[in-house]
Design brief:
By secondary structure, this protein is α+β, with helices and mostly antiparallel strands. The protein has a single domain (about 35-215), classed as q2cbj1_9rhob like domain (Jelly Rolls). It is built from 5 helices and 14 strands. It has helices spanning about 5-10, 45-55, 70-75, 85-100, 145-150, and strands at about 20, 30, 40-45, 65-70, 105-115, 120-125, 130-140, 140, 160-165, 175-180, 185-190, 195, 200, 205-215. The strands form 4 sheets. It has a 6-stranded antiparallel beta sheet. The chain is globular and about 55 Å long. The two termini are about 10 Å apart. The structure holds fe (ii) ion. The site of fe (ii) ion has 4 residues, from loops. Fe (ii) ion binds next to loops.
Amino acid sequence: MSEAERLRRLSKYEARDEVLFRTDDTPEMEFLSPFGPLIGRTQVPSYLLEHINEHVDGLLQPGKGGEVQLSEEFSLTGGDDSLVHWVAKQIDRYVRGVERSDPDSIQLQRLWVVSQYAETSSPVHFHSGDISGVMYLRVPSVDSQQAEQRNYISGRKAGYINFMIGGKQRFSRSLISFKPVVGEFLVFPGWLLHGAEPFLGTGERRSLAFNAGVVGE
Ligand SMILES: [Fe+2]
């Protein structure tokens, strides 16, 4: 391996010199947050949302939560417009963004949909693959007071997805919560701990998740 190639391969571990926020006094102090896992966020095309929802509607009982494994037949239907093709493309974008090189191959191992109603939770967990993600297909109408309610760990908001890393470490951030929004897609390392607190409200919280293996350098 040439020296240039070796350096290129190592560059994926280098953080970027980006300012997260700054003080408004003089001279200002800049705050950088260079370390840690990266979470990618993008939008799902509406044709895909409709396609998945229509399929899942036929497999779930209205008003009852549950989990639906998406078959290969369904996931591959549509060629370039298929669910598998779209998700693999987002994983490729994520890997290229994070590692600055193309993955050799992406294997989608499993795609499934989780349907939840009020007072059900997704306990904190990680996934078995290299890369995981979540796509929001439906969101409930959540009691607004409860949605913002914080419990013993700041940031663990009801119905939100909460990502956690490293526990409590002073002078370090270890939690982030995202409100589920229909059409939003998050992609993250499969080892990153995450979960969702139960919500109070009406309607369904429906999300798609996946596990993928990434072969690369
Ligand atoms: Fe998950």
